[in-house]
Amino acid sequence: MDFLNMWPTTIGSGKFNTDGLIEYIFANYDLNNMEGEVNGGNIFKDNSDEMNKFKDIVYNSFDSYLYASIGKHIKDYKAHEMKAWITGHGKDYNMTIHNHSGAHLSGVFYILAEDQNSGGDIVFSDPRTNANRGYDDWWNDVFDKKSVTPRTGDFMIFPSFTYHHVNPYYSSLRICVPVDLYLYRGG
Q1: Model pTM?
Q2: CA–CA dist 184, 35 (Å, integer)
Q3: Hey, which residues does 80 pair with through a beta bridge?
């Protein structure tokens, strides 16, 4: 029998080096007064050497995911835009279920995530609305949510339509940077 894997939702993951980036963020950003993506914040407007190194890491990670997924590189598009913001800091941080509508790919880069016993897992949901309807519990693994406990230097990349949420984080500090990649083919 031949099999065709239809509509996969691939979540890519990897590691990156945070050396210097943590110190740079502490020295240059007020973590108690951050602009998020919804109100126009974009830390990638920062053209410092440290942030440019981080942008390169993010770009190359997105490019690898894109090529593995559809056989295209970011440079194959007429233009692209990456938007990033700092979030996930402070005790009791959480984020309700959402997706990143309008972007093509999204990622979360964990700059500081040392406490592994205080919650804060990112949880991905099956994006196929009502796909589990009519299946008995033997199929649960196919439809279960996937939970990941991040560590410093971890990243995850996924299609922006993928619904996800962050469970409450009960420690004092964690820093993560969500990033959205917008691709423009032009005419």
Answers
A1: 0.90
A2: 25
A3: 183
